[in-house]
Amino acid sequence: MEIYQLKVFLQVARCLSFTEAADALNLTQPAVSAKIKSLESELGSSLFYRLGRKVQLTDLGTFLLEEAPKLVQQEEKLLQQIDEFKQGNSGTLKIGCSPAISEGWAPRIIYEYRQRYPGIRTKLNIFDSCHSLYEAVTDHSIDVGFSETEFTDFSELSIRAIDQMSYRLIASPTHPLAQQEWGSLRELGQERLVTLSENAASRLLFEARLLELGLSLDHFPQLESVDTLSLMRTYILQGNYVGFVSEFELWNECESGHLVAIPIQEFALSADVFLLLPKRIDQVLIHSREEGKKSKQIISPLQKLLDLLSTKPQLFPGRSYKDEDATDLQSVPRFRSLRYSSLSFVQKAVEDLEISIGVQNSTIPTVAAGIITQKLGLLEHYLPRSGKYSQVKYQIKWHDFTFGTPIVEGLHTQKLDIGVLGDYPLLLSAARSAQSQGQLEHTILVSFIGVNPDGSANAVLVPHDSPLHSVEDLQGQIIATPLGSSAHGMLLRVLSKFNLSSSVELCSMDESIRKSAGRLNPIVTGYAHFSPFHELALQQGGLRYLFKGDLGELPGFYGVVVRRNFAEHHPDLVISYLRALLASQYWQTHVPSAHYLISQWVQCPMELIQKTFGDHPHSRDHSLYVPDPQIRSDWVASHIQQFHGPPDHYPFQSINLDQWIQPEFLAAALKQRDS
User: Fold this and answer.
1) Rounded to an integer, what distance in angstroms lies between the CA atom of residue 419 and that of residue 408?
2) 54, 215, 220, 576: which sits with the fewest CB atoms below 10 Å from its CB?
């Protein structure tokens, strides 16, 4: 018995006429008669009494008239469901995730998904271990998985980062930490700290980060572990504990103001949220998307979810996205996630490896290469801990200097491995490498840090009542400057340009003069300095600018110089330092409170920080320096060309820039960041 036979029967039964039924069905009368005869033959009984041109229903016909519409309606419903299924608007989507993802991330995604596709059922499965999530994905118990842990070395899985998540401290609104802009793990030793149990992903990441920083759980004598977020909430509210969780955990409590989230310096970067699919399914989806560009294709419930995830900023209206100006997640420096294949990666270190870094933290344009990287613990995070470094215990020594000359000396005497230098001391290092003939350690330039495009970052100041008003007035005068600094280089260029090199005496500015609140040594008539020191001196009063910059708009810059021998033996460590620099610059330019924290760390007025980098982290308008790691070899060459004179006074002509500038380290750091 066919459904269409029933439809013909119902039309005849309603019309009680084969002819009228044929007209209504747009069939011939013989065709209608044939359908009814076939149906009666299958049933073994007549459905109509034929009374000439009129017909009457038999008892069986009357019964079928009452029941057949149900079958027809069922067919229509089934066809509609099939059509919806073909369009991806029905079915069941099975999602699996870790407990942390299930707290704040997955519910919002699922809610929005159900609002858009109410015909598709969703089922959320929460997995306490990475292994159980892996098995559920590979045996197709679930359609898709989400985790904050990166699954590596699984050829049958397709894994990609689809969102970011951060880690933070949680406190009650009355806790003293709740009033702070940022917290630091190094400063929590005396706090009551509560974390989730030992197997929780956030706890494992917490311990791994402590290991990187040279700390341990012993640093927190009042540490409690709890099994649920409800217990953690109780400890925080009733015991005045501070909790450590991901941003998705206790999200609602923080949004409502019952709890307060505090960013952590050592977790300043966001980590990844990963999507897990069987590789075969992912390949099918990729093929379907390609075919969909050519013709209308069925969109599966899983593909609809993936399409929804591309609109994630709208799904979390209360969330601050740190990658708002990035084209994709791959271009954003991020925190290295735990890996499922290496969750027990902690190994006992048996070899100490010291890395000595010379920085200039009080020189504001260089803070990303020094104090920010140091405070956020980014170098520790990016240093390699596998292969030949699997049993290494790093000893990072930060040496802070007020100008570049001692850094140059430290690099060439092997007391420093990495140095942060301005344009002139940077060239002095290159010249010493070119002329040493193996007697001194050679150096290489691996990265820029920041650039001053118009070269206005150095200045010469004189007392307010000084008779000096122009460069020409410097003839016969004595100018104090940090010898070997970028200000020294600027002054040499200006004096050479005005043919005053032999008629102006330059002397060193000792520590007491640099800290004398602007008072000059009586034997000098002015001094040259670099930013921010000349601005600080000007604020003390009694001084004015004679001129700023080198009067030729030669761009200024700071760079990273490395001992060649160190780079050859430990290229991975140089790359790690540059990855930390990139991450520091990203944090500096994307975190609203970055300028405030920098001013606190280096004890420099906020207005000078803003003058150096712009009014806001995102703003580059009216900024003195722009963070930029890309080496401009043409700028370096232009600096060399500005110096004319005998080789013993201007030794830069011997520099081979093709050998000294090695951008491949930065290229590797950028590639690793984007991988």
Assistant:
1) 7
2) 54
126-140, 429-443, 486-500, 587-601, range with the lowest pLDDT: 429-443
Q: Is the dihedral of CA 285, 287, 288, 290 positive or negative?
A: positive
**Could you give the 3-state DSSP secondary structure of residue 515?**
coil
DSSP letter at 133? H
CA distance 218 to 136: 37
How many Å apart are CA 629 and CA 648, to the nearest integer? 31
153: Cα within 13 Å, side-chain hemisphere: 4
Q: Please report, for residues 164, 267, 479, 537, 628, the alpha-carbon distance to residue 316 in angstroms, rounded to integers and kept in the order given.
A: 12, 21, 59, 47, 31
User: What is the value of pTM for the model shown?
Assistant: 0.80
- Predicted confidence (pLDDT) at residue 111 exceeds the cutoff of 50: yes
34 and 25 Cβ atoms separated by less than 8 Å: no
Kindly provide the b/e burial profile for residues 363-381, where b requires at least 16 CB atoms within 10 angstroms of the residue's own CB.
Answer: bbbbbbbbbbbbbbbbbbb
- Amino acid letter, 244: F
Q: What residue type is assigned to position 108 of the chain?
A: R
pLDDT tens per residue, range 72-103: 888 887 777 666 566 555 688 999 999 999 99
For residue 647, pLDDT beyond 70: no
In 3-state terms, what secondary structure has residue 670? helix
Per-residue pLDDT of 364-418, as tens digits, reads 999 999 999 999 999 999 999 888 998 899 999 999 999 999 999 999 999 999 9
Please report, as a single letter, which amino acid is at residue 267: F
Contact 106, 97 (CB under 8 A): yes
CA distances from 368 to 49, 333, 376, 485 (A): 97, 14, 10, 19
